[in-house]
Prior knowledge:
The chain is of the alpha/beta class. The chain has 7 helices and 6 strands; from the N terminus they run H-E-E-E-E-H-H-E-H-E-H-H-H. It has one domain (9-218): Ribonuclease H-like superfamily/Ribonuclease H (Nucleotidyltransferase, domain 5, 2-Layer Sandwich), CATH 3.30.420.10. The chain has helices at 14-21, 83-89, 103-114, 124-137, 150-157, 172-178, 189-209, and strands at residues 35-43, 53-62, 65-66, 72-75, 118-121, 147-149. InterPro entries: DnaQ (IPR006054), Ribonucl_H (IPR013520), RNaseH-like_sf (IPR012337), RNaseH_sf (IPR036397). This is 3'-5' exonuclease.
Amino acid sequence: MFSFFQKKHTEYPDYWLAYEQDFRHKSKPGITDTRFVVLDTETTGFNYKSDRILSIGAVPVIQNTISIADVFEIYVKQDTFNPETVKIHGLLREDRRVDAVGEEEAIRRFLAYAGNAVLVAHHANFDLTMINTALKRLGLPRLKNRVLDTSALYTRSRITSNLIDYNKSYTLDELADTLNIAKNDRHTAAGDAYITALVFLKILSRLEKKGIHKIKDLF
């Protein structure tokens, strides 16, 4: 059930206060100096209120490199089950993963992992809204991180032309195919996060050729 009354700041749990503390550190202006966390969520469906996060996958990008050794992947215990979405992500309620954790524990670990990084996702509004809705259920504020969407960034990276539809929304599959990126482990949170990170790096390379070197210019 949603919390309709916002807690006082002093009533927030320690893990949220530690997360907020990260944002007191001044970020560096350069793209290569910035820590990005590229993420993806798998969910029971697409309704922000009634559906739930099944898993969160994320990889960090620092100095134009994906740190494979620091991959984040967590599975969330849940009771909501949508047979339609199983066709996409393959996560069944009956799987009962022994490493699955409760929603609050999953959010706590994700906040500790993300810190004050710039978050990157494909069609980011969906993933971030699902996480923010989970935070709301816990009586916590929204994420404080800045967010980049690879679909929008890809459009910016393309050569300027009157033939380009700047309102087109690209799927992750379309970008992977266009940028010659293998689609291994597609439709798992960690797999999609890794593919998105590869897409993100190729987009950054294109934008760098356009003279974009500062983090502020990506927004």
